[in-house]
């Protein structure tokens, strides 16, 4: 029997939670596990507290031939070396832009004068056909 140490997905949509399990490699991802040896919660803010693994059981299962998956092997290595890194700082806040002042609305008389001036200028620039 090929035994693997891998993650079983739990939790709900968009909020994953994983159990680190020893399983037969032929079983489905969320199938029956031989033994559950840890957890991995992606939503915990402190990176060093995301993973909990019983290292004695990991060592035992690896001594009898269990192979860790790629992701579990990375987690085991980080737990052994205690190198999880630090969470990135949140982006700095940006002040909202000041709205531009709106032009004051013209009165009906001013708008009528402006249109009359525009039509007078247009008439003066027209050329008359010469004979």
From TrEMBL:
Keyword annotations from UniProtKB, A to Z: Ribonucleoprotein, Ribosomal protein
Q: Where is the region Disordered?
A: 87-131
GO cellular component terms listed in the entry, alphabetical order:
cytoplasm; small ribosomal subunit
| GO terms (BP aspect) | translation
**Where in this chain does the entry annotate a coiled-coil region?**
none
InterPro entries according to UniProt:
Ribosomal_bS16, Ribosomal_bS16_dom_sf
Low complexity: bias regions: 87-96
**Which NCBIfam families would you find in this protein's record?**
S16
Stated name of the protein: Small ribosomal subunit protein bS16
Gene, per the UniProt record: rpsP
């Amino acid at each position: 029997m090929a035994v693997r140490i891998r993650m079983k997905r739990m939790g709900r949509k968009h909020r994953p939670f994983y159990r680190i399990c020893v399983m037969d490699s032929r079983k489905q991802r969320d199938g029956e596990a031989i033994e559950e040896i840890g957890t991995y919660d992606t939503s915990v803010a402190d990176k060093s507290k995301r993973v909990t693994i019983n290292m004695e059981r990991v060592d035992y299962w690896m001594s009898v031939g269990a192979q860790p998956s790629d992701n579990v092997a990375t987690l085991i290595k980080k737990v052994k070396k205690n190198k999880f890194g630090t969470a990135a700082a949140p982006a700095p806040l940006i002040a909202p832009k000041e709205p531009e002042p709106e032009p004051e609305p013209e009165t009906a008389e001013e708008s009528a004068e402006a249109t009359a001036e525009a039509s007078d200028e247009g008439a003066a620039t027209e050329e008359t056909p010469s004979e």
